[in-house]
Write a structure and sequence with these properties.
- By secondary structure, the protein is an alpha+beta fold.
- The protein has one domain.
- The strands form 3 sheets. Strands 3-4-7-8-11-10-9 form a 7-stranded antiparallel sheet.
- A hairpin with a 4-residue loop joins strand 9 and strand 10.
- It is globular.
Length: 180
């Protein structure tokens, strides 16, 4: 199971041009627009959750960013059932900067396999590293367990990965691109 999760996890890939970039899923990368993400997910059979917004936008305005929320039945990450995944876009130019998965199963059933898979793929966790906006919005007093990685992306950015269990025993895995 761990190898299936390692394979399914986002990670660094070489593009056709020979550049290395961090890919989330189906070729989706940080910096893409919401339209690009919607087209790629639709091509792969996924439809975002419709918030029935008055302006017809697919993006949900959370008050601090724009979000595309997917809740596909039967979706999984390397065999671990997902109840949702979400793309977060900046307010100023609506480009992708954060992505996360939510898991409906008992937290221990996903936390330890994912933690092991992340360590296998990216090496040991980064003690006292940066944290993602998604994790910081939860509040450390509402978290039972947390592990994180801070990886260099290029000269200007880090990729910040957080895996945590909330006090309600829900497991989340987030990926965020942050300026150095």
């Amino acid at each position: 199971m761990i190898q299936d999760i390692v394979t399914a996890l986002p990670g660094f890939v070489k593009t056709a041009e020979g550049e290395t970039c961090f890919t989330l899923r189906h070729g989706i990368r940080f910096g893409m627009t919401s339209g690009e993400v919607i087209r790629i997910e639709r091509k792969n059979g996924f439809q975002y959750k419709d918030y029935d917004m008055d302006d017809g936008e697919a993006l949900y305005d959370s008050g601090y960013n724009y979000q595309l929320n997917y809740q596909p039945p039967g979706a999984n990450l390397g065999g671990l059932k997902l109840n949702r995944f979400e793309y977060d876009f900046t307010r100023h130019d609506k480009t992708l900067y954060q992505f996360y998965y939510g898991f409906p199963m008992p937290s221990g059933e996903c936390y330890f396999p994912i933690s092991n898979a992340l360590e296998k793929k990216f090496g040991p966790a980064t003690p006292d590293g940066r944290i993602s906006e998604k994790f910081s919005s939860v509040g450390k007093d509402r978290v039972n367990a947390h592990v994180g990685w801070t990886l260099p992306d290029d000269e200007s950015y880090f990729i910040v990965i957080d895996l945590w269990i909330t006090f309600m025993e829900v497991c989340y895995l987030s990926f965020q691109r942050q300026l150095i």
